Amino acid sequence: MLQQKRWRFAILAILPTLAIFAWVRMYPIVETLRLSLHEWNILSKNKPFIGLANFRELFHDQLFLNALTNTSIIAFGVVILTVPTAMVIAGLIHHRTHSRFSGFYETSVFIPHVVSLVPAAMAWKWIFDAKLGPLNALLEFFGIPAQAWLFDPVLSVICIIVLCSWQALGYAVLIYLVGFKNLPVSLFEAAKLDGASGVQRFWHVSVPMLKPITLYVSVVTLISGFNVYAQAFVLASDSQGAPGRQVRVLVLDMLENSFRNYRVGYAASEAVVLLSIVLVLTLIQFGLLREKGRK
């Protein structure tokens, strides 16, 4: 009887939270799925059902395919740049755990992760500025021609990858630090007795032991990369100042189709594609972690 009362109390206690979660999180997802099967121009009350027509049109739409390609390149580029860099930085900070500056190192690395996105992007836009930016001034100092970083489609993608990696690095380093602190010291002592150098201990002991952490950080960073929006909006403006035109990404494409072209159903189908990509990546993460746990 007492156990039943406890269960009843627990269920009643979490019901308000579940209701808010369902309304704020689940209802928009369900509504987006429903809208993706309809044609709606946001100005009309009529929403005729058209089935999978939006999805068929998507994969013949060059703008959408371009946005999907750019977003994928940015997402995987961020992972490739962030994950190994975060592991190395976390290893260096962990190696200096007993240094009086270790807290300063950790804080310095984590600050970019909590800085507001738009001001940070504006600061990086100044850094990449073709005429006044310090990056081109540095290149010219070494005799390298200045680059039009934010007006070349390829260079713009690289700039977005750098900005996203800079912001994702702090969180990745924090997770890796937790992993380093939980590694068994005996393995490193044994490797040291066998004559392994610091680099060898890192490569042959730390890296294999941190595979679950690496998998988690990679998937989280990849999902974050697929949701890139403000970085492209601020950095990749065209010569007329129109935001995000140099590098078209999925979220910007959705917003443009919704509020510029008034094609909400079509934009909803894009959102479903993005949701599917994130869902697949999450399932892969859980599957690999479960497989790793069995081993």
UniProtKB/TrEMBL annotation:
The chain crosses the membrane at residues 7-27, 73-93, 105-128, 148-178, 213-236, 264-289. The keyword Mitochondrion does not apply. Pfam families: BPD_transp_1. Keywords: Cell membrane, Membrane, Transmembrane, Transmembrane helix, Transport. One of its GO terms (biological process) is transmembrane transport. Its main location: membrane. Belongs to the binding-protein-dependent transport system permease family. PANTHER family: ABC TRANSPORTER PERMEASE PROTEIN, INNER MEMBRANE ABC TRANSPORTER PERMEASE PROTEIN YCJO. This is ABC transmembrane type-1 domain-containing protein. It comes from Nitratireductor pacificus pht-3B.
